[in-house]
Amino acid sequence: MIRRTSFNRFPRCQRLVDLFRFLRLAETRGRPVRARPRWGYRTLGDRCGFEECFYRAMHIYGACVGGMGEALKIGITGLPGAGKTYCLLKVIEMLEGDGLKVGGMITEPIIKRNRREGFYVMDWGTKEKRVFASREIQSKTMVGRYGVDISALEEVGVNALRSATANADVIVIDEVGKMEVESPNFVQTVKDALDADKPLLLTLHKKSRNPLLQDIRRRDDVRILEVTQVNRNLLPYKIVKLMKGEVL
User: Fold this and answer.
1) Which CATH class is domain 73-243?
2) Of 177, 239, 168, 164, nearest in space to 203 by CA
3) Burial class (CB in 10 A: 0-12, 13-18, 19+), 138
4) Which one of 90, 98, 154, 161 is least enclosed by Cβ atoms within 10 Å?
5) Measured between alpha carbons, how far is 178 from 210 in angstroms, rounded to an integer?
6) pTM reported for the whole predicted model
């Protein structure tokens, strides 16, 4: 016999246990559930389909986080040229307009004669920037046509992320891509930033199967949003609403 318990009396840890139980049930499509919120669902021994289990899980998730946590982490992904950095910069502009201190690293393309020749890495807080990838760089680390200057990435980008993790209100990382993950120090610093109890925005290479990118996509505390040519102007406003706690 299963005791009926008001959902409001569940401690938060128990709600999270129930969340993962329902998600697991949704995945397997039919295991018995042994937790019951108060909304009049069927008896707990019933088997139920994916849609109902997912619906239950989302209700419990909303109750657990109470309208998205303060340390919300959002990953922006998309095809090259879709507008990942544009979207991120627009979000930064709105957050700074609200008085928040944003820190981290941004990459900017180097354009010569209407052709991309490489990338700068910039510390958003100090605005210091250096070339870290270029056709002209001779390096042991080559990604496509570009030679990668790992020391420039670490001296500017990695230090910017460490400073932001310690001092900023919001951490930004642009981007976690094929060139950046060639640096072990960058990879570890990104993991440290993700584990920090601070809101974080990062852009992600869409197709890379690098272990760091795979880990980020699998994290439960990271919400991945895709930017396209169609939604690039509206997505920044959605992200800001999410960060303010407005559930969409």
Assistant:
1) alpha beta
2) 177
3) exposed
4) 98
5) 8
6) 0.71
Given a cut of 80, whether residue 228 has pLDDT beyond it is: yes
Structure tokens at 7: 């959902």
* Mean pLDDT of the 139-160 span: 95
**Structure-token pair, residue 110:** 């180097």
User: How confident is the model over 116-146, as pLDDT tens digits?
Assistant: 999 999 999 999 999 999 999 999 999 999 9
Phi, psi dihedral angles at 200 (to 5 degrees): -140, 140
CA-to-CA distance for 134 and 120, rounded, in angstroms? 9
Where do the structural domains in the chain lie, given as residue ranges?
A: 7-65, 73-243
Rounded to an integer, what distance in angstroms lies between the CA atom of residue 152 and that of residue 150? Answer: 6
Three-class SS of residue 67?
coil
Whether the bond between 180 and the residue before it is cis, its omega within 30 degrees of 0, is no
What SS3 state is found at 6? coil
Letter for the amino acid at 232? R
For residue 181, give every residue at least 6 positions away whose Cβ sits within 8 Å of its Cβ, in sequence order, or none.
187, 208, 210, 212, 213
The Cβ of residue 113 has, within 10 Å, a number of other Cβ atoms equal to: 5
pLDDT digit string (tens) for 162-203?
999 999 999 999 999 999 999 999 999 999 999 999 999 999
- pLDDT: which is higher, 11 or 137: 137
Backbone φ and ψ for 84, nearest 5 degrees, come out as -60, -50
Give 21-25's long-range contacts (Cβ < 8 A, gap of 24+): 22/53, 22/54, 22/56, 22/57, 22/60, 23/53, 23/54, 23/57, 25/53
Which letter, b or e, does each residue of 178-204 get, where b requires 16 or more Cβ atoms within 10 Å of its Cβ? bbbbbbeebbebbeebbebebbbbbbb
